[in-house]
Amino acid sequence: MQTNIMICGVGGQGIVLTSKLIAATAVANDVPVMSAETIGMAQKGGSVFSFLRLGEGIESPMFPEGSADILIAFEPAEAVRMFPYLKKGGVVIVNTHAVMPVTASLGGSDYNGAEMLGYLERNAEKVVTVDGDKAIADLGSPKVLNMVMLGAAMRSGILPFTPDEIEETMKATVKPQFVEMNSKALRYAG
User: Fold this and answer.
1) Alpha carbon separation from 90 to 18, 86, 162 (Å, rounded)
2) Do 94 and 28 touch, CB atoms closer than 8 A?
3) Count of structural domains, the chain
4) Other CB atoms closer than 10 Å to residue 14's CB: what's the count?
5) What is the pTM (predicted TM-score) of this model?
6) What pLDDT was estimated at residue 107?
């Protein structure tokens, strides 16, 4: 069985690290995996997204629109941008905190993400919202959002790994002083 995962957000949110952690966990558990990231203007809050494919018979890291089993979105507008990749019946995990694009802030636009969240609720069969602001406040660090999002995605049942398996990979990937904080964030359920 194959699992197609789309992870998206803006630069600085930890999308690439999350993708690499899932891929490394797959390798450690003998699950075939391929991934590809697109990093736009990441340092300037630009769009970042990652394709991940798990399972037998994968020939390419990318997959066509309408075939993602899960869309893990760290930002509502990016969720809508990548929504065409979600298959019918797929799951959207989305952070409710909107990040205003640089172009919108320069133009004086007002963007809070509510419209995007509404679009997702109307068009996806299953949407799980994550209050990223609350999680960051509860956990005491903005750097754990990616693990909070990964934990929410794991609870969806679509990812074939346990929190313990992710934590084992995390110990080999993340600096030792951040492992405990990230483990707590992975298990955070708000």
Assistant:
1) 20, 6, 20
2) no
3) 1
4) 23
5) 0.93
6) 57
